[in-house]
Design goal:
The chain has about 290 residues and is of the alpha/beta class. Helix content is about 45%, strand content about 15%. It binds flavin-adenine dinucleotide (FAD).
Length: about 290
């Protein structure tokens, strides 16, 4: 099923994101994770695509296809283009078609300084155009967006103008980068709607439940940290159990507020941690 159709039938849509195991030999381990995540009754599950766009790595396609087949849950495969040729993209979307994958998150991917890029695609909208050209509407295209602006953009206004290229290229649904300040999301959404972007937007939420995530994810995402969040970290960063509980509570608070304010969807960055996803789901299921 095309994911945009789901948004027409239900509000909010609840989706989960997982990533393929780092070592290919561990690929089977993802299914025991999914087995537990299924209890959250996600409307769809998305599977990330390894940084660097290694075409030889088929795990995103394989995992997305198997989840759909085994659990009957809709899936979305991520695909980056910054390090791919047009032939690579053609091959990958051919594999998606064979695997009965109907939804793709068309991404540029991060540019690693000094990396030798293939330079056939500069931006995600060009990938979306290529997919649309090759597949017509057989493969539905979704895209990423950034409530606080993408780190390369000079301003949020510029980033939203660039976002319109994606919509023009056929992107039907947007999923946001993680954020901790709901006001940033509401501000972004208002400005995107004013700019004429009318597609559904799912809010990306990541529960921060351990100190390692604070350093890695929080800094890398560039998300701003509201006082309530830094207070929580300050209080509990040396107390793993308390931080876990506080992190769940914070994410649940964010999600409930978003739902009460009519968000189109919640996209939970599950980090392949079913315990966290289930805890969050238990606290929000009355609103789904
Ligand atoms: P783009 O849309 O190309 O935007 C990148 C920058 O270029 C922005 O500053 C934008 O304003 C600007 N821009 C866009 N279009 C144009 C244009 N036509 N002309 C001029 N400027 C333009 N990375 C992975 O490697 N694998 C994943 O699986 C993955 N999943 C993700 C899922 C989500 C929901 C999100 C939010 C991000 C994900 N990423 C993933 C990270 C993503 O690849 C990076 O954030 C990347 O730096 C930007 O990707 P993009 O598709 O948004 O790029």
């Amino acid at each position: 099923m095309k994911i945009s159709e789901l948004y027409k039938t239900k509000k909010p849509i609840f989706s989960l994101e997982i990533f393929p195991p780092k070592r290919k030999s561990n690929i089977e381990s993802i299914y025991s994770t999914v087995e537990k995540l299924v209890v959250c009754k996600p409307d769809f599950i998305s599977v990330t695509y390894g940084a660097g766009g290694n075409i030889a790595d088929n795990s995103t396609c394989e995992i997305a296809a198997n989840i759909k087949k085994k659990y009957g849950i809709e899936t979305m495969a991520h695909l980056t283009c910054v390090n791919s040729t047009r032939d690579d993209v053609k091959e990958m979307i051919g594999r998606f078609a064979e695997a009965n994958i109907e939804n793709v998150l068309a991404l540029r991917g991060d540019i690693v300084p000094g990396e030798d890029l293939k330079k056939e695609f500069a931006h995600a909208n060009e990938l979306a155009i290529e997919i649309q050209r090759k597949c017509n509407d057989d493969l539905e295209i979704l895209g990423a967006c950034y409530p606080e602006g993408h780190y390369e953009s000079k301003s949020l206004a510029e980033d939203i103008q660039n976002l319109k290229y994606k919509i023009g290229a056929g992107v039907k649904v947007l999923i946001t980068q993680l954020f901790f300040d709901n006001n940033a999301f509401y501000e972004f959404l208002g400005r995107a709607r004013n700019a004429g972007i009318s597609v559904p937007v799912s809010a990306g939420i990541m529960p921060i439940v351990n100190a390692r995530q604070i350093e890695k994810t929080v800094q890398l995402s560039g998300a701003s940290l509201p006082h309530e969040f830094t207070r929580m970290i300050g209080l509990y960063e040396h107390d793993p159990e308390a931080l876990y509980e506080a992190g769940i509570k914070y994410a649940v608070g964010q999600i409930r507020d978003l739902m009460e304010n009519g968000v189109d969807g919640i996209h939970l960055y599950s980090m392949n941690n079913p315990d966290v996803a289930l805890r969050v789901y238990d606290e929000i299921r009355d609103l789904i």
